Amino acid sequence: MNHLIAPSILAADFANLQRDIEMINNSDGDWIHVDIMDGMFVPNISFGFPVVSAVKKYAKKDLDVHLMIVDPDRYLKAFKDAGAASITVHYEACPNLHRTVQYIKELGCRASVAVNPHTPVLLLEDIVADLDMVLIMSVNPGFGGQKFIPNTYKKLADIKELAARKNPGLYIEVDGGVDGSNAAKLVKAGATVLVAGNSVFSALNPVQAIADLKSSGL
Fold it and tell me: Which residues are catalytic?
């Protein structure tokens, strides 16, 4: 299948968020990636339910909500109610991951699990059949604009092989340092969803930047 593009509004202009959401609506972007940070799981704080609800009000694309927070179970229903179509939790933050995943599915959202750069994807072997998506972090989570970690290509190949055996319909998302220089290689390695923040919102023409990422590797 053709890969999807999920522009990350962490890199948007917060003073003109409606404008940037409408830009994504009118682009080749498929989802809107929403990074939630709590200052505990990651050393940064982003935004919470009021902003997600405001984004949902204007969004014509699915909200792909990425929870970089401790004990995410507390807030899963609240993010669903705020407009999340998919919810990603971190493997490293969920001691009862199977239960968390089942609850996300009960809420009617796509259930996704993210792994940090140091976490081997083979740790997902016993849960991957229950997932709708796996998110491979290609930078350390918490800040935009970081340098891409090359070991990501191997991890994409590993999760692609695992998915082929246990869950062929799995979305494989990659987040961090994605731009025109590596998009095609990421798709070739196995990525089916590309999250892009700075490379979209710092571009002179963000709509064209999204289109270029969408056509990468085709």
Answer: 35, 175
